[in-house]
Structure of Sulfur reduction protein DsrE:
Amino acid sequence: MAQKLVVKVTAGADAPERCSQAFTVAAVAAASGVEVSLWLTGESAWFALPDRAAEFQLPHAAPLPELIETVQAGGRVTLCTQCAARRGITEDDVMEGVRIAGAQVFVSEIMPEGVRALVY
């Protein structure tokens, strides 16, 4: 079993099932005791903003705010630097506990042995 799971979610409201699946996998892993790093890229970048996740609706899916809380309790949420810049999002805008970082940090997280990475 991996000691750490890195999940990179690229979808948001534009692909709700894929988006929800990424957040669900990350939250279940975190709740199971796995260290999780959830990366928000592309359209999922908007979920780094306070209350944006509450706007997301998908029938029969766990609420996004609850999934994010679960991930934050057992891991870290990161917003892609370039994705934030393209959307005019700054560190002052994001939810508490969300960091903004780039590809170098992502690569450093996925390279150690025992780390598994998923991209949605």
About this structure: The first strand starts at residue 4 and ends at 9. The helical segments are 16-31, 64-74, 81-86, 103-110. The domain at 4-119 is CATH 3.40.1260.10 (Hypothetical Protein Ychn; Chain: A,).
